[in-house]
Amino acid sequence: MKVKVKQIKSTIKIPENQRRVMESLGLRKINQEKIFQLNAPILGMIKKVSHLVLVEEVKES
């Protein structure tokens, strides 16, 4: 299953470890989107910064 992760809030004034998670997801600007294959490490990163991102399921064709 693939998911689209979109940054909806700024990383200003958030803890350093959450900022690093956002960078490792490849999200550096608001409204930036990335598509990931859902697996355990990605799911853990999404949960850690769930208040900063919007997650949507992507239909595979």
Written account of the structure:
This protein has 61 residues and is of the alpha+beta class. The chain has one domain: Ribosomal protein L30/L7 (Ribosomal Protein L30, Chain: A). It is built from two helices and three strands; from the N terminus they run βαβαβ. The protein is globular. The chain starts with a strand and ends with a strand.
Concise summary:
With 61 residues, the chain is an alpha+beta fold. Helix content is 30%, strand content 28%.
Derived from helix and strand composition plus strand pairing, the structural class reads alpha+beta
First CA to last CA: what distance?
Answer: 11 Å
Largest β sheet strand count, sense and barrel closure: 3 strands, antiparallel
Output the CATH topology.
Answer: Ribosomal Protein L30, Chain: A
- N-to-C SSE series? EHEHE
| Spatial strand arrangement across the major sheet | 2-1-3
Unreliable stretches: none
